Amino acid sequence: MNPIRKFFETQRRHFEPDGRLARLEPFFEAMEKVFFGSADVTRQAPHPRDSLTVQRYMMMVIVMLLPCLFFGMYNVGLQAFKAAGLPLEFGPMFWLGFKTVMPLVIISYLFGFGWEIVFSTIRGHQISEGVFVTCMLFPLILPPTTPWWQAALGISFGVVIGKEVFGGTGRNFLNPALTGRAFLFFAYPAAMSGDAVWTVAAGNGQPAVDAVTAATPLVVAASAPADGTVVSALGSAGYDWSTLFFGFYPDSIGASSTFLCIIGAAVLILIGVASYRIILGDILGILAMGYLLNLLAGPDSMPYLSMNPFHHLLMGGAAFGIAYMTTDPVSAPNTNGARWLYGFLIGVLTVLIRVFNPAFFEGIMLAILFMNVFAPLLDHIVVRTRVRRRIPNV
Amino acid sequence: MQKLTIKKGYRLRMTGVPTDTITDLPDPARVALLPEHIPHIKPRLRVAEGDPVSIGSILFEDKRDARWIFRSPGGGTVSRIRFGPRRVIQSIVIDRPESGEEPAETFTAVDAQALADMSREDLVAHLLEGGMWWVLRQLPFRDLPDPETPPPMILVGLDDREPFQPDPALYLDGRADDLAFGLEVLQKLAEKGEVVAFTGHDRHTVIDRFGQHLTHVVQGIYPSEDPATVLYHLKTGPEQNRAWYIAGQDLLALAAFLRQGRFPIHRVVAVGGSDAPLRQHFRARLGAPLAQLADTKQLNGDSRLIVGGVLRGFGAPPDGFMGLYETSLNILPDGGPAEFLALYDPGFKKPSYSRVFLSKINPAQLVYTCHVQGGERACISCMHCAGVCPVDLWPQMIHKAIHAGEVEEYLALGLLDCVECGLCSYVCPSKIELTRGFIEAKAAYAKELAAKSE
Questions:
Q1: How does A202-233 read in b/e, with b if 16+ C-beta sit within 10 Å?
Q2: For the residues B274-286, what does the mean pLDDT come to?
């Protein structure tokens, strides 16, 4: 017999109803499902069932997040080495990034999964795999200098208040990872914004959590001098088009690379996990609003208004948010029409927040959370319209 | 002949298709009637164990309307009446005589001329008395219809694309007269209502040979040929919601009953599925034992016998019988041990509606098992259910409305249009029993309506 099978079979008795750890049965089930499929058979029609499970569905998202995670590790090291003026060698850079990022990922999983176990045990539900995605998303949208205790607090807030209090995955209306991020953003603004948090210090024996100052592209864009253009300001800060596109700039850990987000979004659309309607809606919204601002821009207005709208997609976390956050099926609207509108409004709000609100350089986080709240309303409108078109049958 | 195109639905690429071979089976030693699997009825027995019966003797009636009687599919002795939980009558088994003639009742035969001269009341009375009313059913609840009210429409579905059901070309072969006569009967029952007869657009043999009797051909995948789907796409107003429908073989049985004056006891049954020892068609007795259709000794214990299609049928033990409405027996692998590292399998052979598995690019027909595949989770709004629903429902919203007890809400969302095809339950990654919930909610609502009208 397969030794892993044997291990689970011998341990199972502890988790059965009269076992010592009976209350932790959801944990046992979740662990067993990592290694084994289900042996349960249907009790009623339809007799065969689709091979797709929530577990698999969520795993596809996690797999597509891994490139962002590894790129994030590399980029954290790269930015630190650049700031410290050290030679850019791949090995040490990646190791620094790994040392910085991995604890945050581990903390995120430890606390997020921990809360999920606590709540499923009390409720007697099975563990829903959505929490694994949340725990992967959350560290990727943190600044690399985030203190560990804040990461633990953030993921706890996101999972508990953003999700568990409403009944767990599937019943939440806010994206839990973003809820946790927003909590940290408002509770600890000094650690979550400003120029000092996006780059870790490297070398000279300093602890890695100390930060160095480097303005992110969004800050550069928002504070471009009135007599220049945003592109020239970005250029003089070293953020040319390809740097932005591939993501080699200081930003949240895994959210900087538009290139990887495009690949991730394309694969998720291809396998049907992400809604292309939301993604296209997002992009259209950003471009439309950016273009509208171009039209409104006068000679005296700030240069951010007349920036090529495509730059909004390259800078900051917009691409990451579009690919992985707006497409969360639970917090997005369910109906196709509402999905277009939801995406479009997120795009519009993102640009508005970025351009006109000096306190929030990154607009997409708040735009998504704001539209999460409105998703049921958008659904309601679409449902009423469609129901009116049905021939009533009562 | 009009063409109706239905875009939604889903085709299971299941291996084990029955061949076109058709074999006549000898009369079995015993046949049975399964009241448990006739939806909605409340049977009151008219026989007891040990009673002698003939083909066409009354076995039980429906307490709700004593005119709805159910007659025996065999002659001999009632050997066993099996009760289930809460005294539900599971089966009435009739042992046929070992030698000699099987006793049968006779009824007045009705020819085309007699039918034309008959009033609707006389025809209805004749059908009720003959125990043939069960062939007719009324949407949306799929219950027996009220005999007095002529329906707005009667739908005749010759086809069934659920895996696996008999090929209409096989059971219609040589029965053109019965088909034509049956349609006449339906027109009489419908009075001014429309009789809509249809088959799939790719059933070329049926269209060539019986095309003059058809009003529509339906282009689409399962369950495009279901009467409820066709009604949804044809109806022009709410008055048509209570249309009647009849399955192809039941229509032939109805016609045969009237023309010959004998209770019809034969039908064509398809046997399919990857575990079926012989995948083909049989001409078998109504209520035939399953052991006659598939050599159950050849099956190891890991197969499931499904009476009816794999999406709507019911599981039965090897010593079970065919149901009154079911026309197929499908045998699938029941399960087996949990697969090691199933989560990381690229899934070249894992059937799925989604595009998450490589089976999407595998053109082969696949083996489907009766595994649930995963644990039950809360709905994550993946919308696969809405993607397959043939009548444009949002199953997940209806499911939530049912849970919240919002009757008005789920009716407005169109619960009563539900085809009960089983596709939403099939595709659900959270393994929610959507179809079962809808059938139960519909039945509860039907009960409420019945109580209100009394």
A1: beeeeebeebbebbbbbbbbbebeeeeebbeb
A2: 94
Domain limits of chain B?
A: 2-16+106-260, 371-453
Q: What is the CATH code for B2-16+106-260?
A: 3.40.50
* The pair of three-digit structure tokens given for residue B218, joined into one six-digit string: 């339906």
Q: Pick the residue of A2, A49, A57 with the most B CBs within 10 A to test the interface with B by mutation.
A: A49
Q: Name the fold adopted by B371-453.
A: Fumarate Reductase Iron-sulfur Protein; Chain B, domain 2 (1.10.1060)
**Among all chains, which residue has been given the structure tokens 């109504």?**
B286
Residues of A in contact with B350 (CB under 8 A): 51
- SS3 assignment, position B184: helix
Nearest alpha carbon to residue B378 among A149, A334, A232, A330: A330
CA B433 to chain A, closest CA, distance in angstroms equals: 9
- What integer pLDDT is reported at residue A86 of this predicted model? 83
Q: Are B294 and B151 in contact (CB under 8 A)?
A: no
Which stretches of chain A drop beneath a pLDDT of 70? 1, 203-213
Instruction: Give the other-Cβ count within 10 Å of B128's Cβ.
Output: 16
Residue pLDDT, tens place only, A128-183 = 889 999 999 999 999 999 999 999 999 999 999 999 999 888 899 999 999 999 99
Contact yes or no for B330/B164 (Cβ under 8 A): yes
- Domain spans of chain A, in order of start: 54-212, 228-379
Rounded Cα gap, residues B441 and B452, in angstroms: 16
Considering only CB atoms, A272 lies closest to which of B355, B373, B435, namely B355
Under a CB-based contact definition with an 8 Å cutoff, are residues B187 and B351 in contact?
A: no
